[in-house]
Amino acid sequence: MLQIGNFPDIVNEYAARSVAGLVLILALATLWTQSVWFNLALLYGFAARVLYGPKFSLFAKVAIHGIVPLFKLGNRPTAGPPKRFAQSIGFLFSLTSLLLLINGQILAFEIGIGILAFFALLESTLGFCAGCFVFGYLMRWGIIPQEICEKCNHLTFKTKD
User: Fold this and answer.
1) Tens of pLDDT along the chain (161 residues)?
2) Per the structure, how many domains does the chain have?
3) pTM of the model
4) Does a structural domain hold residue 142?
5) Dist CA 66 CA 97 (whole Å)
6) What is d(CA 41, CA 27) in angstroms, rounded to the nearest whole number?
7) Is 128 within a domain?
């Protein structure tokens, strides 16, 4: 597999949920204003997180250094590869919505951003990561090799003890 950037193998679940909350706010602002600039900010954020994890993501920095310590959320380790996969899906949705917006396909843009906002809401409030859910099935079906997430399995067993 082509390795791009340096996405962490383990991430803080509370930081990921905080990022999802920030994505939700920006997605709703993008939907409300139909702003190309807000949509570009969404796209950049997802691209930064897919390629390098929190290193170049403003939302990740705010979550890790601001929200998590401010609200004393602590650290709940979770596997990085499924989160990276979920960020990739967010990247595709934000790219598609940007292209639709630029081409004047407003209803399709609204549907795309609405779906993105809905799944950000699920992750930020309930901790349900739809991309992670799909990632698990792709592993079970053999589409994603087991070695991609060997650390996922170790982490899962470790946190259940």
Assistant:
1) 445 677 888 999 999 999 999 999 999 999 999 999 999 999 999 999 999 989 999 999 999 999 999 999 999 999 999 999 999 999 999 999 999 999 999 999 999 999 999 999 999 999 999 999 999 999 999 999 888 877 666 554 444 43
2) 1
3) 0.89
4) yes
5) 29
6) 10
7) yes
Both tokens of 34, joined, read 């139909």
Instruction: Name, in order, each residue with C-beta under 8 angstroms of 149's C-beta and a sequence gap of 6 or more.
Output: 79, 81, 82, 135, 139
Q: Does residue 28 lie in a domain region?
A: yes
- Which burial class, exposed, middle or buried, applies to 50 when counting CB atoms under 10 A from its CB (0-12, 13-18, 19+)? buried
**Domain membership of residue 34 as a residue range:** 10-160
Instruction: For 26-51, give the DSSP string.
Output: HHHHHHHH--HHHHHHHHHHHHHHHH
In the chain, the amino acid numbered 12 is: N
Decide if 85 is inside a domain: yes
Cα end-to-end span (Å), the chain: 31
Q: Indicate the Cα dihedral angle 110, 116, 118, 121, nearest 10°.
A: -130
In terms of Cα–Cα distance, which of 63, 70, 74, 71 is closest to 123?
A: 63
CA 58 to the chain's CA centroid: 13
